[in-house]
Amino acid sequence: xxxxxxxxxxxxxxxxxxxxxxxxxxxxxxxxxxxxxxxxxxxxxxxxxxxxxxxxxxxxxxxxxxxxxxxxxxxxxxxxxxxxxxxxxxxxxxxxxxxxxxxxxxxxxxxxxxxxxxxxxxxxxxxxxxxxxxxxxxxxxxxxxxxxxxxxxxxxxxxxxxxxxxxxxxxxxxxxxxxxxxxxxxxxxxxxxxxxxxxxxxxxxxxxxxxxxxxxxxxxxxxxxxxxxxxxxxxxxxxxxxxxxxxxxxxxxxxxxxxxxxxxxxxxxxxxxxxxxxxxx
Amino acid sequence: xxxxxxxxxxxxxxxxxxxxxxxxxxxxxxxxxxxxxxxxxxxxxxxxxxxxxxxxxxxxxxxxxxxxxxxxxxxxxxxxxxxxxxxxxxxxxxxxxxxxxxxxxxxxxxxxxxxxxxxxxxxxxxxxxxxxxxxxxxxxxxxxxxxxxxxxxxxxxxxxxxxxxxxxxxxxxxxxxxxxxxxxxxxxxxxxxxxxxxxxxxxxxxxxxxxxxxxxxxxxxxxxxxxxxxxxxxxxxxxxxxxxxxxxxxxxxxxxxxxxxxxxxxxxxxxxxxxxxxxxx
Lengths: 281, 281
Fold this sequence. Notes:
Two copies of one chain form a homodimer. By secondary structure, the first copy, chain A, is of the alpha/beta class. Chain A folds into two domains: about 5-100 and about 265-280, 2-Layer Sandwich (Nucleotidyltransferase, domain 5); about 115-260, 2-Layer Sandwich (Nucleotidyltransferase, domain 5), CATH 3.30.420. In chain A, about 35% of the residues lie in helices and about 20% in strands. Chain A has helices at about 35-50, 85-90, 100-110, 175-180, 180-190, 200-220, 235-250, 265-280; strands spanning about 5-10, 10-20, 30, 55-60, 65, 70, 95-100, 120-125, 130-135, 140, 225-230, 255-260. In chain A, the strands form three sheets. A five-stranded mixed beta sheet of chain A has the order 3-2-1-4-7. The first copy, chain A, has a five-stranded mixed beta sheet with strand order 10-9-8-11-12, with helices on both faces. In chain A, β1 (about 5-10) and β2 (about 10-20) form a beta hairpin. In chain A, α3 (about 100-110) packs across α8 and α6 (about 200-220) crosses α7.
């Protein structure tokens, strides 16, 4: 059975066709147009060329609204409340499984990556923004909307430059405001990957992400936290986060394992798996 | 069908027999003995007198271990790792549903209280300690252990007396360390209920509990947060928390409803409901 997968991002779209989430096959990428209709035309042309598919998994940047199938608030105004799921349904005439990019990525790691066999874990990605997907008892957590853990409230590190207010346009110094890639770049005037391992930047980064790990642990009691994304691909950072989280939790409870995701494209893998579940039997 | 319910607390035990979680009937209470065998003897005598019951729901102070049926770490040393579930099974020869007191309370509010019909909500109790139960997609969240949200890391309020370090023996100024009943008493040398509505104490209390509401909202996206317990029964506090949470979240997302629980004994109600599910058909 041939299935489709889309990872819809604010700057680029990824499309793939396959049947095994562990190997999504060749990936087509194109820039996200300012005009959603242009991007949809590219997506539909891709599946016309590589299809037919039985179902499509759509892993979208958020926030999204499951009920209406829209991306809700985004700085890209023409995409606000654009009915992306309906546009795909009308063009492809197959079931569309609609998820956030990060929940789909969590699901991808669950079916084919570092969280296989784990029913209670959290996938966090730290890059341009910070977001995550939560699996509890083998199911993705949705609730009122979906998790938005990038906006956890964190304590400022005592050595934080007081002039740095954080980059979140809503909260300033929430988790994303203090620990995202743009936060590092604005604070140190250098991208994260160019900062040496012993730079204060990593002490602060570990402090913020460790707070997130502790807060996630005490709210949903996961067995595993996967930390991915551009900032977290620094191997030394994971050790610093583990040490800092252990210091913060102070022996009160046994922390979840903190590890790296396994997949290069967890969002696409998750989208393929979700497509498989949505496809007619 | 007659069912049993036990709410096992560190200072007192409550027992009831009934069939409807909405009305647990007459409640027997006795002090928690230093010796668990003494307390178990009282519990068994109660059910001998009021039984037979088809199953018992046991809502216990925690942390608990579901696998072994024990309370794990508690300052009451003889209760540490006491196999409370097995002791009841051996004495009563009926199925025992074992939950934390706060998860059972959440379940009680779900079946018979303020969270009826709501599949995604969080019950928090603020008293001697702070704890809570999480329901996601209609199921109680367990995971590696169970939620321990009393230990969320919070920011100190700018007007917090710097000499006050918080009362949590593990973390000092975590949520429980700053916002539990003992934290209020230690900071102001008065119990919470005797502090006037316009006292700074309530500004700080609302600040900490509002942070908890925002953190809970961004991690599990509940539709409803119920705030119960001795400290939160001050009606004016709920309004202060709602206003402070709205200020903190700054319009980024639509906050869950923040409300009071409806039941006088949500833990017993939940224990009865869980007993009903554990009883043989």
